[in-house]
Design a protein that fits this description.
Elements lengths: L1 H36 L11 E2 L3 E2 L1 H13 L7 H4 L4 E3 L9 E5 L6 E9 L2 E6 L3 E6 L5 H5 E6 L11 H7 L11 E2 L3 E2 L1 H13 L7 H4 L4 E2 L10 E5 L6 E9 L2 E6 L3 E6 L4 H6 E6 L11 H7 L11 E2 L2 E2 L1 H13 L7 H4 L4 E3 L9 E5 L6 E9 L2 E5 L7 E5 L3 H6 E6 L10 H7 L11 E2 L2 E2 L1 H11 L8 H4 L4 E2 L10 E5 L3 E8 L2 E6 L3 E6 L10 E6 L5
Antiparallel strand pairs: 1-2, 3-8, 4-5, 4-8, 5-6, 6-7, 9-10, 11-16, 12-13, 12-16, 13-14, 14-15, 17-18, 19-24, 20-21, 20-24, 21-22, 22-23, 25-26, 27-32, 28-29, 28-32, 29-30, 30-31
């Protein structure tokens, strides 16, 4: 007996396992109609959506689906008819929504819940919530338009993974700074969050930078999941992004309603502000293999510091100066307006990774900001705004498009190490200033020049005024690396010309350094003379 009982028990569990899912599924399918039956007899009320007040046809459906499935449907039948997937009349199942037209219109005006056996549950104007026949020739059969089957996890029947993800957050609050569903979203950060969750794509957190991504799509070729962009009517700046849902609708974060779906196609407000659309399937990265960019990325997140020139804190030009020196031994001046005067102007369409990108009238008049172009319409820079740190931004960001000044290529500003005098001078960079200094322990201005030339076998006088008598005079426009250059202040200050308007000179504050005297507000006005010595090799 016990063995037979054991066998029956196992078989019972097996058949229970096989058939329970189908049974449970059937019950799940009927739960909407079963819930609707609880409200038979509730009176009709225009726009009513509570049983103790009364139901409109859409109000009944909305209430039942909220109770049975925990999902929030729109109130009106026409909006409900845009949900789910079409169902043929012959394939109706309990819980499907059935739609009807009005007396003098072909449009959807009412909705019921299919109850099985050719029967619907609907809120009738004259009788309240009733069961009614859908048999041929009946009142409702004559007004029948169509039916929809709703998936509670995908109410709009969308296939796009972006839209499936976006629909999860309908009703989430608006927030100007929030980055999560708990905090709320603005429109751009909502789009950013959905791309991250659905496709694991990291996109920018503002609308104008998002415009840099993807492929342009015309209105006539929109597909569900495409990203829509809208502008400020007064400024023309992109301010809002949304996902295209289909049938002229979009889902976005509204400042008044939070995450919501609206019809934008028939809206004069949205049509007048439409900027364009993009299909985004990938996010092209910056050129991380480029030596300049690879070095620059090491300092991501370094704090912004006015006049900062080291990783403990950078200002914009201090950052570009530091990276160029570190990687290419190119010595840029320390202010953006000075860097702007260097190199070769470049058109936007010819920009290359490593070019300097300049902006004007940001926090002060004139050229006031600079970054390094990192590829794919992005730059890496030390920004004083927002988080005030070294970060990456797209050049399409409204602020940068408005303030854009131009591009300069400075990679050719290298110092020729094949000139012996120049090489000796470069090897002494950062040796400190020392009053009366004539050795690598510390130099004054003339002591430095005297020492460098001594290394290649040329003896010069101790002071600049006497060096002026050496060699032959050279016109400024004919300067060559290795020439002596003189500046006149309270005394004659000697320096070594190293090319491209640059000199190796001793500064009291920075010791031996490279300065571009051509763009320097200090050195340029006091240029005095130049001499060329007879240097062999």
């Amino acid at each position: 007996m016990s063995k037979r009982f054991h066998t029956y028990l196992i078989l019972g569990i097996f058949f229970l396992f096989i058939f329970l899912p189908n049974s449970a599924f059937a019950n799940e399918e009927k739960s909407v109609s079963e819930t609707a039956q609880k409200y038979l007899g509730v009176s009709y009320l225009t726009d009513g959506k509570e049983p103790d007040q009364g139901f409109s046809t859409g109000g009944l459906v909305q209430y039942v689906f909220k109770e049975a499935k925990g999902v929030e449907l729109p109130l009106y039948p026409r909006e409900q008819s845009e949900l789910g997937k079409d169902v043929e009349k012959g394939n109706l199942q309990a819980g499907d929504l059935v739609f009807f037209k009005g007396e003098n219109t072909e449009n959807v005006t009412s909705v019921g819940i299919y109850n099985g056996n050719n029967e619907i549950i609907i809120s009738s104007v004259s009788k309240g919530v009733i069961k009614a026949e859908l048999t041929e020739g009946s009142y409702y059969a004559n007004k029948y338009i169509g039916a929809k089957r709703l998936d509670p996890n995908n109410l709009y029947g969308v296939e796009s993974p972006l839209l499936k993800e976006a629909m999860k957050y309908i009703g989430v609050d608006y927030s100007s700074n929030g980055k999560t569903p708990e905090e709320g979203f603005n429109s751009a950060r909502f789009v950013q969050y959905v791309f991250g969750q659905a496709l694991d794509l990291k996109i920018p957190d503002n609308s104008s930078e998002q415009w840099s991504l993807g492929t342009d799509i015309s209105k006539g070729n929109l597909q569900p999941g495409d990203v829509l962009f809208f502008k400020n009517a007064d400024t023309g700046n992109i301010t809002t992004t949304a996902f295209y849902v289909g049938k002229g609708r979009m889902i976005y974060s509204s400042s008044t309603k939070g995450i919501t779906i609206i019809d934008f196609e028939d809206s004069s407000y949205w049509n007048s502000r439409f900027y364009g659309a993009k299909r985004i399937t990938e996010v092209r990265d910056i050129d991380r293999e480029d030596p300049l960019i690879s070095e620059a990325l090491k300092y991501m997140g370094a704090p912004y510091l006015e006049s900062g020139k080291t990783p403990s804190g950078f200002d914009c030009s201090g950052f570009t100066k530091y990276v160029y020196e570190k990687v290419l031994r190119i010595y840029l001046p320390g202010a953006p307006e000075q860097q702007w005067k260097l190199g070769t102007p470049v058109k936007k369409e010819d920009i290359e990774v490593g070019d300097l990108v300049f902006f004007q009238n940001t926090h002060r008049p004139g050229i006031s900001h600079v970054g390094i172009y990192a590829g794919n319409n992005q730059m890496i820079h030390a920004s004083r705004t927002g988080s005030a740190e070294v970060r990456i931004n797209y050049l399409s960001y409204n602020f940068y498009t408005e303030k854009f000044a131009g591009i300069r290529r400075v990679k050719n500003l290298t110092i020729p190490n094949d000139v012996p005098v120049v090489k000796e001078a470069i090897d002494l960079l950062d040796v400190p200033y020392k009053s009366g200094g004539t050795s690598p322990e510390g130099f004054d201005t003339s002591g430095f020049v005297q020492y460098v030339y001594k290394q290649i076998g040329i003896d010069l006088p101790r002071y600049g005024k006497n060096m002026l008598q050496e060699g032959t005079e050279v016109q400024e426009e004919d300067l060559r690396p290795g020439d002596l250059v003189f500046f006149k202040s309270n005394s004659i200050i000697p320096a070594i010309y190293v090319g491209n308007g640059q000199i190796a000179v001793v500064s009291r504050m920075e010791g031996v350094r490279i300065a571009n005297y051509k763009v320097s507000s200090y050195w340029n006005p006091i240029y005095y003379s130049a001499r060329r010595l007879n240097v062999e090799g």
